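Changelog entry

Holo records now carry the ligand SMILES as an explicit input line rather than a separate metadata file. Below, a converted record for coenzyme A, shown in the new format.
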Amino acid sequence: MQPVVLTTERLTLDLLIDADVDVMTSYCQDTALKDAVPIPWPYGREHADGFINVLAPQWWEDGTEFTWAIRRTGDPLLLGVVGFNVESTAIGYWLGAPHRGNGFMPEAVAEAVSWLHSVGHTELHWEAVVGNVASARVAQKVGFDYTSTAPALGRFRDDTRPLCWHAHRAADNGELSEPTDAVLPWPI
Ligand SMILES: CC(C)(COP(=O)(O)OP(=O)(O)OC[C@H]1O[C@@H](n2cnc3c(N)ncnc32)[C@H](O)[C@@H]1OP(=O)(O)O)[C@@H](O)C(=O)NCCC(=O)NCCS
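Structure line, unchanged by the conversion:
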């Protein structure tokens, strides 16, 4: 599948490129990021290089995972990443620490969700380790419904499945085809 570029009022979501390797390596030294997202740890330049130059382009080509670099429109600096895994229907995201707290992620995720819906990915899943309020606020702001607190769908770096908040987002125009969870009030 051809990579797709998305734009919002302030942001451009495009392909990760080789010039992002060093800045991604630097962002990924952050222990808060390590605790929230399943990045390798310790995180070396080779991990950013492999992700940007091998994995992400391969996933676009296979159509298995769509990964976008988040940038301010007109500025090449990488701010963070948003991605969607087709098999699990999970949407995931992170920003480099200096770029948090500006409302960038709700803006980026809303656009990604809108595009995903437009191409037929109408049911999206989100999860975050219990207590990740910033991530939950993003999901809440873009219309995800909280459904449960339960173990993570996949195993984490330490081979455990920590307790996570789970949420889903159906297309604006429809119900979930197979509703499996009741919608509950967000625990934040
Ligand atoms: C989650 C993340 C992407 C949020 O992106 P962002 O662009 O900074 O989001 P926002 O600026 O809209 O802030 C999100 C909300 O969380 C709040 N928030 C931020 N950090 C917080 C914290 N440590 N504790 C409580 N609330 C926090 C903000 O005040 C804001 O709340 P508001 O909507 O009521 O104003 C960013 O914090 C991040 O990259 N975190 C590390 C990686 C991560 O957790 N990824 C998600 C894994 S599931």
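Spot-checked after migration. The chain has five helices and eight strands. The two ends are 38 Å apart (CA to CA).
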